[in-house]
Design brief:
Length: 177
Amino acid sequence: MDKKRCGWVGADSPVMLEYHDREWGVPIHDDVKHFEFLVLEGAQAGLSWSVVLNKREGYRRAFSEFDPNKVARYTEKRVQKLLFVGGQPKVNRWKIMKQVPATSAESDSFSKDLKQRGFSFVGPTVIYAHMQAVGMVNDHLVDCFRYREVAKLVSNPSKPDMRKLEMRSERASRAQE
């Protein structure tokens, strides 16, 4: 028996099935992974997501293994500003694809902040897609088998190591001086 999945998943694409079933919507607390998804979401404009996933390794090479420290340095204030979801993903309860929004107040704010810091191609729609991909919101449809699995991760998260974030922030602040 086939598992019920979100409507955007193409059953004929192994890379899309793998992505949906293992990655999409899973909360991420790793800067490198966040940067990877941000780059990939930006690349998606005008392309299908399956094309982007098929080119993922090329993006990884082009962006130095998605090491955000080579692209920008964040202060503790910046890290705190990005935690607008309070460190807890937002769990939505969409029943049909038409209910899933393209943007939110949070993606608008996140986008505006990134643009003020010199990022480009990070509009609210790209940022909302990023938030979905990295588990800042759980937008799996409620009848998708991954909805409950991801919701369990949210209710029992392994908290990010805040000391590592603080140390990273301190190094970035020293480097800016």
